[in-house]
Amino acid sequence: MKNRNLEEQFTLFPIDTEFEVPKEDTTPEGVTLVSFRNLVPEITDTGYLTHAIVSYPAKFIPQVVRYAINTYTKEEDWIVDPFAGSGTVGVEASLCKRNAILLDLNLLLNHIMPLKVYRGKERLRKELMLKLLDGMQGNEKHLFIPAWSNVQYWYAPEILELLSQYWGYIYSIEDDVYSGIIKSALLKVSKRFSYTEHRTPKLARSKRKLAAIEELLSENWKDQLIEIVYDHALKTLGNINDFVMHTQHHQNQVEFQGGVDSSYIAVPRECDALITSPPYLQAQEYIRSTKMDLFWLGHTEEEIKELSRLEIPYRKADRIIRTETLDKIRNQLTRPDLHKRLDSYFCHTLNALENSMNQLKPNAPACIFVGNPRIDGITVELWRILTEYFSERGFLFEKVYEDRIKTRQLFGVRKNKNPDGMKSEFLLILRKMAV
Question: How many CB atoms lie within 10 A of CB 269?
Fold first, then answer.
């Protein structure tokens, strides 16, 4: 099976599973059933413009953000997102002439946002990009190996050698938007040509992927790798140029800080709205999911370990959150480890939300997009718990929208805490009361 397309070789286990909501399912009282994709028809592709430059697990879909921006903010408003993730709120804010403050524990934010919200007003030059890409192929002088003690575990030696040459070249040239674009392309191939299952969020070396790489090495793998780099870099350059055309007359600002704990960092100004999507209850290991990227981007094991310890599953709760709905769920759980996970999740999620929401102006909206996950078979109505908590802390419940999920991509080779997926996601709107 020589010369198969690399995409075909590595497409093995992702499966598209469609969920039709049973007829007996009903929308809870007080909830408005919507389809954000229908409400925002101008966005037909969740990866349009600069949204898809770098892969990131559980991205905030832009239709929800655009709806919240259009409905609850006005031009020049400041929006805060304490769980910025892949920066969706920042991109949409830029397109809609809003300002944004993005905060996230993951250092990846600092690397991707200069590309996603590129501030230049002139189009990038394709010929300059091609010149840099061509120069990369001739590099043998400059080498870069990640400061990762077991990097060799994840790569065939000849692939690691070539990647170290390409990354070494990028670190030897000027650090600008062009080198940033090439880095984003190298991140793509650095994971795809590794031993990890690159379509799953977490690092997972498998016999299947080992065999795939072994077969790939008997083919023209260098040509395939460099072709992906060129294609991704040129496509990204085009997407950034399209973003420039949409925003070149905008004067808004996007401030971002990755590698920070949103629970305690000072939000630098009062804001007119919060728009965010907190991590899922059962899937919050974003740093562990992106650590291969972070190593290639020059971060050390100590940096990554320190931040990983702050991810929600690995932190102890420093207070116990109590609301009527949450207490009922807590009383139904019999396993101590699930009690700890529940307490940790609500403690640190609410700490971060409250920290940012305290900086909202009077009458400002907090738009929070959440699912209803299950823990030990028990449905956790996050939007209801958040409403109960914040209604006692100066916020009024305004509205909640339910968006039913028709299609969800799941991964068949890993244990999934919610194997049937979530049926719906909810956009909760709270309003800060005037003093």
Answer: 11
